[in-house]
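Person: At home tonight, work slowly through the protein below, taking as long as you need, and write a paragraph about the fold.
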Amino acid sequence: MKTLYLPLLLCCLSGGALAETITFATWNLAWQRSEPLSQNQFDECRKIKAAEREKLEETHPYRWECKSPEQISDLQAVAQKLNADVIAVQEVESPEALQQIWPKDEYDFYVNMQSPWIQRTGFVVRKSSGLNVGTLGDVHSLGDAFKNHARHGAELPVTINGTTIKLLSIHLKSGCFDHALNSGYATKRDKANGVITCEVLSKQTPALEAWLDDAIRSGSSAIVIGDFNRRFDAPIERETDPKVSLYAELSDGEPSAANLFRPTEDFQALPECRGGGSKWLIDHALMTSELRKHYVEDSLSEFPVPLKGSDHCPVSFKMQF
């Protein structure tokens, strides 16, 4: 009798053992440049007033952000606590910029170098994650709405246990956090440059929806992940008019898998991670409906960045395949 039950037991055990849990995350790394500053360079950079820094060449190491060696070490410590398998990243200049934070013998780095502006998007993937990783793609249409400093999307297909997911790392227009897309709202800085902030975001929306719908029609599951610069839990995003709400435009049920699932729904940011005086996140993941069953309930987490080497806190969640 024992012999008869053994194959069934082994079958059940092997089925459970084959399940893979993958931790996904998103993190805007805030002007993570290719070359780190030495302590002397950091001290020198800090002495330059903001008005003088704006006169420097745009690619100058002191132009945008002064990031100390201590802050880089802190980012490394946060990445270690994050312990994610796939991290969608934003505001990175190159793969070398990411190698300052994650060890290159443990992770692979995918940065969309076709994007013209140094605030690029991409992914960090753990080598031992068990994922079959495809070719990095450039979603240039997300940058077409920008007057300058265009930020393209980075597409990366991954396969785990027979499930293929098209991942898209994005960094959408900042400033239209909780205004209607058709409000005509512009930040003071954008207005001075002849830019209508919410109009730029509204022009990015069709490009994002087209990518999502194409991914679904190709037979793939899809996750759009990154810095949406949008508070999806704000009252304006509860509206159902796609001219008003970004979420309503994307999660329209056409195709049917475009009834999106958002793990960050109703999640309140940690006090030390709140930007602009709001408790609501701007970093999110939106996934096609069939992926909902793979989400590990209550797995969403946020990780503080004590030394503020980035003004974003990474957000992570788990999925099981």
In short: DSSP finds eight helices and twelve strands in the chain. Confidence is low (pLDDT under 50) at residues 1-16.
